[in-house]
């Protein structure tokens, strides 16, 4: 049956001891900070944008604008859906209630796997950057995995203390990383860059070069986490207004921030030189640091080396909160064990889910460290890549769900642009997924056609199929539990 807002005025029946998450804890600003922090703006500018420049050339800033426009069109339909279907389960809940519980459970497992992959993998990058910062600033030689484990504990503590506490922390960290980019931009523009202020990034000859199609997926991957606002509905003040507003603001900010920041790098190095320069510095990963030191001074490079660590940390905290809420949803609906859905009676947070996620992250770090695997080329890439593809698949399934739902409910009066925007964004999303699979080597670093690429690409689809089979078995053997999938009744 259709799961309408009227039928879903109450959240799913909580597990024993579940008093519910803290109500009215988040406003629009808090959610914006959480969503933008998940995207780790400074991390993308320093770590990923140079790859986009090396492959796509001076037009690389355009991929972020293109991704922002496509995701804004996606958000139009997604946010409209949230006004007619109440769910505290993010993509999992909305897919379940539009495409059915069988596909829904598959999407729930993909969501849980994907966000864990994104969050856990980044501990490798955090460990590297923190270790380098401690070495350069204090002369301390601390292994990357020690830094990662310390960060894991800190993320757990802030997640346990409360969503509003985490929101305040990421607000400060996000403000600092934005400020340093603004400082660099002002100085670069004041000095006229390397070849004057140029808009070669918008030159059609640069925009439509073959490399741009390959790096378009990098643009979309930079927005991972923006859609998690729907997960905070239970804790948001006036969620029908705050969640959509925060989602649109986040997409706009991320798109403008990335495009502007990468254009500043193009201007600082010169449109004629930036592609070769970025390609020559990919292994060192110091393109943005060189720009900072050259135009602003060594102190700026030093500050950036610290802020890159806090940027990743803020992202980790945002993803930690997202994962905990997916775990809570799957527990409430009988998919995960009931004990994983226990709520802290003191802070009204999904405390047990937080412990589970923390232990899982620590185990991954310990295993990769024990086998002396590279924290970036192996840990980050192997664990992150399935997560990126999984989120893209979830976005596509949600887009299909939006179209299906509103075509079924013709009695709902829609804005004229809603269905066209949903269809266009879905087509773009499917194209991006295809481009991702065809250019996986950009993410994995392995040669094209490598078995490693095939394995990493296969993980998300395999998890989706496992969930679908699991749901089909539940439908036959545990019909009562099956009906609870995705917040059903």
Quick gist of this model?
Helix 1 (28-38) crosses helix 7 (163-190) and helix 5 (101-138) packs antiparallel against helix 15. The protein is 72% helix and 0% strand. The protein is mainly α.
Rounded radius of gyration (Å):
22 Å
Provide the domain count: 1
| Straight-line N-to-C gap | 9 Å
Based on secondary structure, the structural category is mainly alpha
Tell me roughly what share of residues is in helical segments: over 70%
Share of residues in strands: under 5%
The CATH topology annotation reads as Amino acid/polyamine transporter I
Number of helices: 19
What's the CATH architecture?
A: Up-down Bundle
β-strand number: 0
State the major sheet: none
Stretches where pLDDT falls below 50 for ≥5 residues?
Answer: 1-18
SSE ordering:
HHHHHHHHHHHHHHHHHHH
Annotated CATH homologous superfamily: Amino acid/polyamine transporter I
Tell me the name of the CATH class: Mainly Alpha
Mean pLDDT: 89
Textual characterization of the structure:
- The chain is mainly α and 489 residues long.
- Helix content is 72%, strand content 0%.
- It has 19 helices and no strands.
- Helix 3 (61-82) packs antiparallel against helix 10 (239-269).
- The longest helix has 38 residues, at 101-138.
- It is globular, with a radius of gyration of 22 Å.
- It starts with 27 loop residues before the first helix and ends in a 7-residue tail after the last helix.
- It is a multi-pass membrane protein.
């Amino acid at each position: 049956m259709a799961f309408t807002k009227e039928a879903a005025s109450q959240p799913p029946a909580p597990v024993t001891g579940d008093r519910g998450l803290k109500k009215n804890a988040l406003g629009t600003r808090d959610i914006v900070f959480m969503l933008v922090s998940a995207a780790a703006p400074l991390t993308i500018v320093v770590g990923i944008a140079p790859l986009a420049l090396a492959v796509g050339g001076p037009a690389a800033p355009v991929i972020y604008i293109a991704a922002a426009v496509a995701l804004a069109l996606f958000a139009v339909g997604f946010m409209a859906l949230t006004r007619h279907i109440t769910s505290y389960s993010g993509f999992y809940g909305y897919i379940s209630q539009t495409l059915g519980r069988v596909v829904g459970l598959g999407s729930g497992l993909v969501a849980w796997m994907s966000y864990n992959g994104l969050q856990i993998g980044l501990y490798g990058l955090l460990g590297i950057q923190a270790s380098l910062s401690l070495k350069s600033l204090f002369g301390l030689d601390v292994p990357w995995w020690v830094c990662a484990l310390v960060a894991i504990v800190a993320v757990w503590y802030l997640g346990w203390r409360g969503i509003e506490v985490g929101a305040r922390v990421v607000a400060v960290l996000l403000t600092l990383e934005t400020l340093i980019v603004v400082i660099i931009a002002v100085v670069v523009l004041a000095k006229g860059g390397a070849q004057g202020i140029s808009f070669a990034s918008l030159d059609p000859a640069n925009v439509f070069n073959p490399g741009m199609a390959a790096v378009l997926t990098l643009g979309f991957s930079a927005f991972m986490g923006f859609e998690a606002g729907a997960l905070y509905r239970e804790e948001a003040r006036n969620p029908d207004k705050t969640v959509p507003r925060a989602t649109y603001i986040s997409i706009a900010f991320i798109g403008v921030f990335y495009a502007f920041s990468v254009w500043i790098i193009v201007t600082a190095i010169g449109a004629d030189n930036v592609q070769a320069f970025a390609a020559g510095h990919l292994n060192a990963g110091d393109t943005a640091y060189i720009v900072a030191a050259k135009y602003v001074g060594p102190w700026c490079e030093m500050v950036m080396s610290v802020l890159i660590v806090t940027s990743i940390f803020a992202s980790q905290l945002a993803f930690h909160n997202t994962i905990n809420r997916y775990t809570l949803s799957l527990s409430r609906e009988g998919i995960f064990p009931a004990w994983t859905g226990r709520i802290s009676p003191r802070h009204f947070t999904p405390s047990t889910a937080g412990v589970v996620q923390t232990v899982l992250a620590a185990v991954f770090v310990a295993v990769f460290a024990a086998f002396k695997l590279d924290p970036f080329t192996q840990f980050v890439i192997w664990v992150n890549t399935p997560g990126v593809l999984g989120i893209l698949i979830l976005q596509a399934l949600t887009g299909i769900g939006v179209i299906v739902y509103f075509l079924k409910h013709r009695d709902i009066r829609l804005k004229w642009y809603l269905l066209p925007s949903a269809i266009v964004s879905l087509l773009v999303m499917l194209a991006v997924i295809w481009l991702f699979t065809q250019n996986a080597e950009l993410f994995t670093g392995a040669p094209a056609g490598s078995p490693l690429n095939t394995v990493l690409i296969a993980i998300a689809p395999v998890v989706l199929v496992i969930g679908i089979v699991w749901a089909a078995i539940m439908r036959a053997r545990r019909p009562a539990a099956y009906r609870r999938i995705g917040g059903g009744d």
